Amino acid sequence: MTAGVLVSAGVLGVIVLVAALFFQRASGAFSARGILRVYLYVGSLAGILALAVGLGSLLDYGIARVAGDDFVYGTPPVPVAVSCPPGAQNCEPGPADVILRQQERQNEQRRNEDLIRGLTFAVFGAVFWGAHVVARRALHEEEAAGGPLRRGYLMLGTAVFGLATVILVPTGVYQALSNAVLEAPPDTFRPGADALGGGITALVIWLIYLRLAVGDLRSGA
Prior knowledge:
Blueprint: H1 2-23, H2 32-67, H3 69-73, H4 95-138, H5 148-181, H6 196-220
Helix pairs in contact: 1-2, 1-5, 2-4, 2-5, 2-6, 5-6
């Protein structure tokens, strides 16, 4: 869910940025140098998006390790004919016990997948973002505060992660509260708070972008 929301918001934001530059093409935004500058900023944002997906997955993994797999990935329906309760010794497992063990292994696999996905996306996103930042500096494309492209980049990042925050944080909080407060029959699946890690990550990055955007506006003014 986190990756889908972040990617959708990022694609929408890039479309808006390109459209805005198209209507301002008289300023030279679509010259060869202008296209390169736009690409470097868009690439930087893409790296931040990949980094956010990775950090969100790592945070889900950490929450699952602390609060339990069921809290993040959901509580599977418990078969009514379980003959071996947790901690039972010298118990012959029946078909229902086998199903329960399979469900537990599935949640454990999802947790491990979050760890691998988080490390992969976080490392790749950080390297991709860093490469574009270094390229901007090498080409002297680091604009001073108040520059139109830099200001557009900061406002775009603020909008993208603000939109992701508005979607993911309430969803994750709702999922966590519903699991803690509401009761559900044991034979039904209870969804987990899988949006919580991505929501916290989006919130932190949104606050960073918002602070930079406000500071840029003040310096430019």
